[in-house]
Write a sequence for this structure.
C-alpha cells in the first residue's frame, strides 16, 4: 500500500484524489496539507514540514506560490513528489529543478492520458503542416481557475516548439495586436466560464481547410487517477525530473 500526503487536500482536486485513494486497496492517504486546515478523514496540517505521519510520496494540487515551500520540505524529508499545480513561475520551476537532483519529482500540467496522446498527435501534425498552416491553441476552463493560459496549453505549445526548433513566438490573445498575423506566431487563447472541467483545441488553419485536434476532460477523476498512477511510478525512481511521457513509456 502506497502512503500518500495530499498537498492542497481541501481543494477541488485534493478531494478527488482522496476519494479515489479511499476506493482503492493500493493507496492510503496518511495526511493532508492545506492553508485551509478544515478537518478531513486524515490529519490536516498547514505545512508539510509539520506532518508527523510516515509517507512514501506527496501529491500536490495547490497553488503555484506554495510549491517552493512544499519542495523544500519534501527535500528535507527525502520524499518523492508529484506536482500537478500549474501557473509556476520561472523562479518556482528553478526550485523544482534543483530539488530534483536529490529527490524524484514528477511534474505534469495535465495528468490525463488523453492529453498526453493529443500532444503526440499534435507534434506529428506540426512537423508535417509547419510550412503552410497557422497554429492556434484555445483552452476553456471553469470560472474558479486562477491561472491563464492553462498549464496544458503552455505544455502543448512547448511541445510544438520542441519539434519546430523553437521557431514559434507565442501570442497570448490578440487584443493588443493591430497588425496581420505572422507565420511564426502561435496564438494561445483562454476562455473561463461555469463548470467546464478542461477543453483544449489545437487548430491547424491552412488555405481553405482546417484541422482541429482536441481533448475534452469530462471529469476531474481523470486527473486524480493519473496523479495516483504517477505516485506509484515516482516512488521507484532515482532522483530526477519525470513527466507523463516517462510514465506512458514504462507502460
Ligand atoms: N496537472 C493536472 O492534471 C491538473 C488538473 C487539475 C488542476 N490542476 C492544477 O492544480 C491546482 C489546484 O487546482 P484545484 O482546482 O484543486 O484548485 P483549488 O483552488 O480548488 O484547490 C487548491 C487548494 O490548495 C490550497 N492552498 C493554496 N495555497 C496553499 C498553500 N500556500 N499551502 C497549502 N495549501 C494551499 C487551497 O487552500 C485549496 O484548498 C491548480 O494549479 C490547477 O491548475 C492540475
Ligand atoms: O482545473 C484546472 O485548473 C486544470 N488545470 C490544468 C491546466 O492548467 O492545464 C489541467 C486541467 C484542469
Amino acid at each position: 500500500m502506497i502512503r500518500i500526503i495530499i498537498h492542497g487536500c481541501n481543494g477541488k482536486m485534493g478531494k478527488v484524489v482522496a476519494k479515489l485513494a479511499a476506493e482503492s486497496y493500493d493507496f492510503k492517504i496518511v495526511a493532508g496539507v492545506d492553508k485551509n486546515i478544515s478537518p478531513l478523514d486524515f490529519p490536516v496540517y498547514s505545512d508539510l514540514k509539520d506532518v508527523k505521519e510516515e509517507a512514501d510520496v506527496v501529491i500536490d494540487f495547490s497553488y503555484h506560490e506554495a510549491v517552493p515551500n512544499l519542495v523544500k520540505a519534501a527535500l528535507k524529508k527525502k520524499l518523492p513528489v508529484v506536482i500537478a499545480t500549474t501557473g509556476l513561475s520561472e523562479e518556482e520551476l528553478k526550485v523544482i529543478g534543483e530539488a530534483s537532483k536529490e529527490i524524484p519529482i514528477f511534474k505534469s500540467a495535465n495528468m490525463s492520458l488523453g492529453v498526453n496522446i493529443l500532444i503526440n498527435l499534435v507534434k506529428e501534425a506540426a512537423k508535417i503542416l509547419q510550412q503552410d498552416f497557422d497554429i492556434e491553441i484555445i483552452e476553456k476552463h471553469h470560472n474558479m481557475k486562477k491561472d491563464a493560459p492553462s498549464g496544458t496549453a503552455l505544455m502543448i505549445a512547448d511541445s510544438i516548439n520542441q519539434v519546430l526548433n523553437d521557431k514559434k513566438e507565442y501570442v497570448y490573445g490578440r487584443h493588443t495586436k493591430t497588425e496581420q498575423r505572422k507565420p511564426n506566431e502561435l496564438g494561445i487563447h483562454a476562455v473561463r466560464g461555469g463548470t467546464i472541467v478542461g477543453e483544449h483545441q489545437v487548430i491547424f488553419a491552412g488555405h481553405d481547410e482546417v484541422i482541429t485536434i482536441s481533448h475534452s476532460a469530462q471529469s476531474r477523476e481523470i486527473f486524480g487517477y493519473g496523479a495516483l498512477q504517477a505516485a506509484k511510478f515516482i516512488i521507484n525512481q532515482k532522483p530526477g525530473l519525470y513527466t507523463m511521457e516517462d510514465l506512458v513509456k514504462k507502460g
About this structure: The helical segments are 12-22, 67-77, 90-99, 113-129, 151-163, 221-234, 244-250.
